[in-house]
Amino acid sequence: MSLSAEEGKQYFYPNRWARIVLESAEEIIGDKGVAALLNLAGLPQYIGNYPPDNMKKEFSFEDMGKLQQAFWDMSGARGARVFATRAGEKSFNDGLKSFGSVAKAAQVAMKIGSLEKRMSVGLAFFARFFNTVSDQVVSVDENENEWHWNIERCPMCTGRKTDSPVCHLAVGVLQGAFTWGSDGQRFRMTPVKCQGMGDEVGVINIEKKPL
Question: Would you list the domain boundaries of the chain?
């Protein structure tokens, strides 16, 4: 059984993370677009009333799953992938302003060694951060050519059944992190497994050689 499907348990994101996602979406599609998105998701209570700017774990994975599904319903699969990736990348960049001390700690951790070594250290650092401040559970492993970002408990897939990976918000966050950590370089990232498809663990492959 996947961690996201544990019987009778409810999991949460910090309010601030959900707020950043909605604010990022607003910059992309406007406040009326976000209102339409929230109505489509069955979450009208958040229209003009985003979650508070704090780190309390109160935004449920169920609501995040509904929000992500609304991206797909509103834009179609291809449009939703582009939109979710953009929103994720913007969420990371906006989040840097809220988590300045974390960013500084990450920069210290990533100072030494080759680009590949620095990115490996950074990925491990951010996995620990995700696991500490949210109920999302991620881990990292690697081989000679790729890192694997493993999503063991996934808010993006909660309550969803899909035919292809839908973790593109996470891809966007990782794109933002890698661009920031590598001084502007881009890396190819491919979701290959997804709990929404029935996989035990969601997996995003990240090629070690920059584009």
Answer: 3-207
